[in-house]
Write a structure and sequence with these properties.
With about 325 residues, the chain is mainly α. It is built from eleven helices and two strands.
Length: about 325
């Protein structure tokens, strides 16, 4: 995800990295080239053809509506993915908090809490999760998770196994166990929702029809512009092509929000925030009468006081009009 200042209008307007320009410039350049060839080798025929602009006016209106619908569908997928990852952050925090308050020893739960978002991230990107799992689960836990085609599910199972052991040992009451299990199940619900977004692209017929209609409109547009504008039509067709092709490409850019593209969700940062919060909660000293100052100091030490702030440290509030990664939820 690219951070930018909404108030820096000119700077953002002149941006290149992270925009759709690298993907559409070649297609846009073909339009004035086609127009120049028509003027040079078939200018007289185009003048005699004198194609009426009404058809392109009607098609242009319908095409604009379809492009907006296409972009809205893509942004819905992007925002839904962000909401589910926010749900993973919240469920993980609540799970760690409840387990810390009622479950006592978190030694076996913390590695699973940190491994789950990393495993899910790799699965959504269709990458090997081995490196991330080893860092949190060790060799034995990683081997067990990778033995299953859905490693994140195995990590989720490890959380339930910890809860089962804590309940049998009497560390967690049955009532609290049900509440904690509901949070574990919530993580799996968010995983299923993310997989649904990934595995259900925009229907082929709809996506292709938009491209076919856009191609037909732009390729035949010079036949309407040349008799009226002449060589000026090269500039006009370039601007129209950049606008329409760019809008379509922007929708394609955010259709799959889980990848490595500049505008995809910052999953690496989200996973780091989850691990940071879980570990800080584990090292937080219990509150006790007359020890408020000591607990406060211990909590600050557990949170890493004195250490350099990480890029995803949310204790530093961003500028209120800066588009950045807000406190994750």
């Amino acid at each position: 995800m690219i951070e930018y200042h909404i108030t820096s209008w000119l700077r953002s307007a002149l941006s290149y990295r992270g925009t759709v320009l690298p993907r559409v410039l070649l297609r846009v350049a073909m339009l004035p080239l086609i127009t120049a060839l028509l003027i040079t080798f078939a200018g007289g025929w185009v003048q005699q053809l004198n194609l009426n602009a009404l058809g392109h006016t009607l098609i242009g209106g319908a095409l604009g509506f379809v492009l907006v619908f296409r972009n809205n569908a893509s942004y819905d997928r992007y925002w839904e993915g962000r909401k589910h990852w926010g749900g993973i952050v919240n469920a993980t925090r609540n799970l760690a908090r409840a387990a810390r308050s009622y479950g006592g020893d978190l030694g076996a739960l913390v590695p699973a809490l940190c491994a789950f978002p990393h495993a899910l991230k790799r699965q959504l990107r269709r990458e090997d999760p081995r490196g991330d799992l080893v860092a949190h689960l060790g060799a034995a836990g990683t081997a067990r998770a990778l033995h299953h085609p859905n490693p994140a599910l195995v990590v989720n199972l490890m959380m339930s196994e910890w809860l089962h052991a804590a309940t049998r040992a009497g560390a967690v009451s049955p009532e609290q166990g049900l509440r904690i299990e509901a949070l574990i199940a919530e993580l799996m619900d968010h995983q299923g929702a993310c997989e649904r977004i990934l595995n259900t692209p925009v229907p082929f017929a709809h996506a292709i029809h938009v491209r076919q209609l856009l191609l037909l409109y732009l390729v035949t547009l010079p036949l309407v512009l040349i008799p009226v504008l002449g060589w000026t039509s090269l500039f006009v067709i370039s601007v129209l092509g950049l606008g329409m092709l760019g809008i379509e490409e922007a929708g394609i850019e955010i259709e799959d929000p889980f990848g490595h593209d500049p505008n995809d969700l910052p999953l690496n940062r989200i996973c780091d925030v989850i691990c940071r919060d879980v570990h800080a909660l584990v090292t937080l000293q219990d509150a006790s009468p007359g020890a408020d100052s000591g607990a406060s100091a211990s909590g600050r030490a557990g949170a890493g006081e004195g250490a350099p702030l990480s890029p995803c440290d949310e204790s530093v509030a961003p500028h209120p009009r800066t588009h950045t990664l807000a406190p994750l939820q």
